[in-house]
Amino acid sequence: MGRMSRLWYVYMSGNQLKGPFPFQLQSPWLEVMDISHNSFSGSIPRNVDFPSLRELRLENNEFMGSVPGSLFNAEALEVLDLRNNNLSGKILNTVGETSKLRVLLLRNNSFQTHISEK
Q1: Are 65 and 44 a contacting pair, CB within 8 Å?
Q2: What CATH number should be reported for the domain holding residue 73?
Q3: 1: in domain
Q4: Contact (Cβ atoms closer than 8 angstroms) between residue 29 and residue 54
Q5: What are the tens digits of pLDDT across the range 63-101?
């Protein structure tokens, strides 16, 4: 697809797409990225930069490994859907404290965390 530097919205849900996280979709203007219900695999990259991203939907793929902490506190991110992957690692208690994150969906992965009694 080539580098698409002026994309605002990407909806590629429900196809039979395979391979690693699609770096070529990286754009400073990207607000919504929905690549759910495909067969993307590998890890979620640590060096992805989406400064305007409000909604990231990666559910129902084959991503594995840990999720970069910076993703949980991305400045503009409001919706993060990671359900039904093979993700693991710790979820920090500070998730969302410094961001606009309002919806966080993590079901059917292998995350670990400690829930405080605060």
Answers
A1: yes
A2: 3.80.10.10
A3: no
A4: no
A5: 999 998 878 767 899 999 999 999 999 876 666 666 788
